[in-house]
Amino acid sequence: MLSLICSNLIFMLFLSVLLGAGDEPATHNLTQVTRQPACVETMRIGRGRAGEVTFAPDGTTVAVATNIGVWLYGLDEVDSGHLLRHTAEVTSVSWSPDGRRVASSADDNRVRIWSVSDGQLLHTLKGHTDVVTSVSWLPDGQQITSSSDDNTVRVWNAADGQLLQTLEGAMNSVTRVRWSPDGLQWASGSETNFLFFKKDNLVRIWNAADGTLLHTLEGHTDTVRSVSWSPNGHSIASGANDNTVRIWDVADDQLVRTLEGHTNSVRSVSWSPDGQYLASSSNDHTVRIWNTADGQLLHILKGHTNSVRSVTWSPDGDQIASSSDDDTVRIWNVTDGELLRTLEGHFILNIRSVNWSPDGSQLASSFDDNRIRIWNATDGQLLHTMEGHTDDVTDARWSPDGRQIASSSDDGTVRIWNVSDEQQRHILGGEPQAVTSVSWSPDGRYVAAASRSGNFFNLFEADNMIRIWDVANGRLLQSLEGHTNDVTSVSWSPDGRQLASGSTDETVRIWNAADGRLLYTLEGHTDTVRSVSWSPDGRQLASSSDDSTVRIWSVADGQLLSTLEGHSDIVKSVSWSPDGTWVASGSNDETVRIWNTIDGQPLCILEGHTHPVRGVSWSPDGRQLASSSNDNTIRIWNVNGN
Question: DSSP string spanning 434-472?
Answer without folding.
Answer: EEEEEEE-TTSSEEEEEEE--SGGGGGG----EEEEETT
